[in-house]
Predict the structure of Chaperone protein HtpG.
Amino acid sequence: MATQQFKAESKRLLDLMINSIYTNKEIFLRELISNASDAIDKSYYRSLVDQNISFNKDDFYIRITADKENRTLTIEDKGIGMTKEELENNLGTIAKSGSFAFKNEAEAKEGVDIIGQFGVGFYSAFMVSDMVTVKSKSIDSDKAYKWESKGAEGFDIEECSKETVGTEIILKIKENNEDEKFDEYLEEYRLKALIKKYSDFIKYPIKMLVKKSKLKEDSDKEYEDYLEDETLNSMVPIWRKNKNELKLEDYDQFYMDKHFGYEKPLKVIHASVEGAVSYNTLLFIPARTPYAFYSKEYEKGLELYSNGVLIMEKCAELLPDYFSFAQGLVDSADLSLNISRELLQQDRQLKFIAKKIKDKIKSELLLMLKNDREKYDQFYSNFGRQLKYGIYADFGANKEDLQDLIMFHSSTEKKLVSLDEYISRMKEDQKYIYYATGESIDRIEKLPQTEMIKDKGFEILYFTDDVDEFAIKMLMKYKEKEFKSVSSGDLGFENNEEDSKKDTEENKDLFEFMKDALGGKVKEVKASKRLKTHPVCLANQGDLSIEMEKVLSMMPDNPNLKAEKILEVNTNHEMFTAVKEAFANDKDKLKVLSNILYNQALLIEGLSIEDPVQFANDVCNLIK
Ligand SMILES: Nc1ncnc2c1ncn2[C@@H]1O[C@H](COP(=O)(O)OP(=O)(O)OP(=O)(O)O)[C@@H](O)[C@H]1O
């Protein structure tokens, strides 16, 4: 049985093309400029392979002309042009791309990076025009032809006069309607902005006569308008240049010109990768935290270019959340774009590039941490919190990537240190990586729980961000060393633990009494061996620490989880003599003392006391 051919309703297809493919009408200019650039590329290429064809470098530009009176916008090039047949075939057949065919023929040759591939971009002109006229003269013909169409109804072709080889696309811009202002596509400022946005890195100059004003001759206050030819695009994508040709100032300038930021970036990463997927990338780490960075408003992403043409302003898939501070762009010819060139299909290449970019940012940060500590400290003060969130997020899926990049304030070094640095300084008899949690470094410095650990000469990491302890719980270990809170039940000091057990055993009844006096607020009262000069402190058992309880209690949907608290009593402290005496002679007094001591421990911990009035009265009664 003979296979039947599909038929297409070309009118309906064109209607679909015009109205459904692109979400954004303004991209028509990008498409037409890209076509003009392709036409010049082809002409240049032909001159290389065909000796009969010469080229004049001065003709390699694209001209935009807006005529408000006649409502026309013209895009003109002196590229390869089209014959009558080509006009018919390329502009008369949807999804026929002369450019794609050309690229395939020229595949083996260097230096051809043609943009067009789907054969649909041209029709986007109908989104903003009632009528499109194309005048073209091919490099292979003496005659010029005019193609004209009002859209779905079809097109006419006739011979016309045209001096130079190349193509002129004349758009009759639609009248404004209730929803849309088409007028703006005739406005100089809007055209300039569109070119800057989408076509800034088209490699040929995009010229336009722009209105300027100057002082009239023989006058010092009267001005007159005049027109001047201006090139509107920057042309050379700096990221495609060789790194050796570029100075730091060039990158800084580019960063500011592109409005990534108002001041120089902290770090520039420029990489060109050749391989299964080739791409260039230029990444920046800002010197400051961007506006609203730690809020939902902040939108992460890199600019995505295909052959120098902007495809997406913020491609979020290129950055993991924990590196959302990175700015910049990726340019690759290997992306599988979908037909509207606006969105990417679930793209393997994009995933590949994203993974490489993540690895690159990580390795650059590690180098900075090692070789340029001052800079890393600056980076970390802005974005360290984001890295710690990254460890905690997604159930710790990215902790391996991030654990070497985080830092905490050290009790011994008095500055931020990495986990690796901490490990390298650990004492022989030190089992754990110790940390203490609190509102500020000052406050943690004074925590009674840190006394004995400091006394032993062990370093303590200070956690001052809410996320710190959550991140560390996710990490659990670093290089086989477990983390241990200074408030945790077992600190891993063998002798001390033994002493404390003995002391607790000796005062068993007393501690039991105190526990009862506190009415279930603590799980246990016991002798402490982590205290030296302070009378009491709180320790905790179980996974939820006292600090975590504090963080959770501040959340909008407070889960009301409580840490299991233990009141530790310093049996070497003078106060303990009074406690023992009260236990022997005045149990009511011990009840009061127990509450005072417990409330003191809460205050030191930064927790609020349940009944401050009672506490104040108790203290007063003691003073009396
Ligand atoms: N200014 C021009 N000069 C010469 N040929 C052109 C010009 N504009 C369009 N063409 C021809 O018309 C064809 C169709 O253009 P169109 O913009 O629809 O698709 P494309 O550029 O090939 O692909 P894409 O849809 O990816 O942009 C082009 O492939 C090219 O052969």
In short: The chain is about 35% helix and 20% strand.
